[in-house]
Design goal:
19% of the residues lie in helices and 38% in strands. The protein is α+β, with helices and mostly antiparallel strands and 155 residues long. Strands 1, 2, 3, 4, 5, 6 and 7 form a 7-stranded mixed β-sheet that branches. The N and C termini lie far apart (49 Å).
Length: 155
């Protein structure tokens, strides 16, 4: 039976774009297009993990706008693991969707040498290219955001 590992997934939105990254030294066929995400540490709340992971994986600060939902994703055969993903819509004040910047993880969870990638902004309409089910709750997030815009409470 695979072990369950709780993860925080960050959907950072700005001007109809979502923050993503692609690895520099690994082929796209292995890593795909990803969003910042990572393991929730013992004693850490999922929202705290999202803020931490955003900074660790991009070098940028942001904050949680809302919790979107939870989804289970079977990671096998890559790892004998079920990722229990806690999705968050997040904001990064002062973002520039034309910017592209390098980032790295000097101590990857799986061990080994530092891993480097490029962070960039993908038009939200193209979010279907996200790998490993990371795009699973984008539609729900957008539905919720549309409801907020038309809600008498948010006016």
């Amino acid at each position: 039976m695979p072990r369950e590992v709780h993860k925080a997934v960050c959907y950072i939105l700005h001007d109809d774009h979502i923050l993503v990254f692609t690895h520099r030294d690994l082929p796209m066929t292995v890593t795909g297009v990803q969003v910042p995400a990572g393991t929730i540490k013992a004693g850490e709340l999922p929202a705290q993990a999202a803020v931490r992971e955003l900074f660790e994986e991009t070098g940028r600060h942001g904050h949680v706008v809302r919790h979107i939902g939870v989804q289970r994703y079977d990671v096998r055969p890559m790892r004998d693991e079920i990722a229990v993903r806690h999705y968050f819509q997040m904001s990064m004040p002062g973002a520039d969707v034309t910017e592209r910047w390098p980032a790295e993880e000097s101590d990857p969870a799986a061990g080994g040498p530092a891993v480097t990638w490029d962070c960039w902004w993908l038009p939200i309409a193209h979010a279907h290219v996200l790998v490993a089910g990371f795009g699973a709750l984008i539609g729900a997030m957008l539905d919720h955001s549309a409801l907020d815009e038309h809600s008498p409470i948010s006016r």
